[in-house]
User: Fold these one by one.
Assistant:
Number 1:
Amino acid sequence: MNPHQLLQRVESWRAADGPAAGLADRIRRTLDRTKSRRALRGAWLGHPLHPLLVTVPIGAWVCSAIFDFGTGDRDAACKLVAFGLAATPPTMLLGLADYAELDQRQRRVGLAHAAANATGAALFAVSYLCRARGAHRAGAAAGLAGLTAIGAGGALGGHLSYAQGAGVHRWQSS
């Protein structure tokens, strides 16, 4: 099975429908209460914000690997892991705001995308804790595992955006 076929299979993941619909409904209700849905979705900018913000943690974590394996600057790598972790909650919030507007097939992929990225973020939290305790090699290894999970999440996010057209013109009306 090639990667595209695997991504298409996620679209048929019917077992995710109940939890995915419940999550979307809870997010919609919460954002409607706070009246922040349009702002979080980027209506003021003219396009969704989540794709813009994802570059911050991903960039920080990729650069941490460059410092780990290229320059050997452990301090810089640790700071970049921490910076990526700090950028993760707002990135996730914006993704959840977009998630609430997806259709059923897109929610299936969106749930897998979120799970892969949450796994990656958790691995980077482990990476940071290892580094903070002086176990730099273990921290670097956890970071590589985190990049692998984030890569899978990115592939799912790309499929969601480009193959499924998620979010296309939806930011305007929500």
Number 2:
Amino acid sequence: MAGTDRGDLTRTAILALLGTVGPLSRSEIARELDLSPATVTQLTKELIGHGMLEELDLKPSRGGRPAQRLGLVGSAGRALGVKVTADHLVLVDVRLDGEVLGSWDKPHDPAAPDALEHLADAVESVVREISGVPPLLGVGVGVPGSVDDQAVGTVNAPTLGWQAMPVGERLRRRLHLPVLVENDVNALAAAERLYGRGRRHNDFLVLTIGRGVGAAIVADGRVYRGARGGAGEFGHLPVAPDGPQCGCGARGCLEAFVGSAGLLAAAEQAGRPPAERAELPAAADRAGRSPAERDGGESLGAVAELGRAGAGGDPVVRAVFAEAGAILGRATAGLINVVDPEVVVVLGEGTADWPLWQEGFDSALRAQLYPGRRDISVEVESWDDTSWAQGAAALVLATPFDAAGAAGEQGRLVRARLIGAAP
């Protein structure tokens, strides 16, 4: 390997270390990466010169001179994150250190013949708006489906009606920027690894609940993608062969029981149809939305109504959530038994009602866990609609810390933009 390549990899390793564990002294960097102090001094000097690192406070010493700590410079770069849903786009402008500088919400119909052109139009308009300082490193896109390769970005997403959709290629051709595309839950896991609880863990699970159910598996600090980029389709774990039909076409999937549509169906079977369900389609029609958009908005709005009723003490609704929580808990226990994570992080729109889920989830989870794993921590994080898009931005922002090269050629272009070189 050429010396310059080795130097680039070592610079990336230094950025990766500071990006995942926070500020460290030069001697701590040398120890963690098994580098000579002279090498660390030289490379960190270059990174400071590029505006990527800065000297922070002095770290107290037990004896001798206090050590100067180094940290990432958030203003060294920014990324645009895009979350594609069944009825709209959420876009966020995020700095290298995770600070959100701005957000946008735009209508979108993925079933339209010109869906990709509309997506490119929406992204391009925001790119023009945010051009300047910090420099834009690239665009990350999160989708509810499988993606062949982040750097290629061909999407199969049944919930969007997309098959072999060339999202990455179309956006790169329009924007002339690096573009990374990934399953939305995997993107959230990348954000957790950079800025969340994943900083402290090399092996963890991310579960999402809301309109659907998803999972991301982080093993040895990397998101496991599988052979075709489709790992983590937790919502399609078979639960009961004679269960309700799932949106994927099969029967009895986990998502058919505990996704938003499953919760609403269970509430109706229990004799309590949500009051708001009949009102939403008419309002959606007046807004000119497609049937797919109406279904998505109807489900989430009606589940929110269910949650309010449950929080108010409605026993039927509380029983529905508790049963869904128990089904989810048993399925999660199976996943934990297979992959053996250190911690489980729960995210998604459904976490707003987590106290209702928890009544059934905790006991079912612990009962099914393999001995020795029953004390695993399940951590629920706060949520808002921009969180998905922040995850997508993390695809780009994690690229300088990506020693495994998952981002391919697009990752090289991101790193080139970060250090100010022409791609």
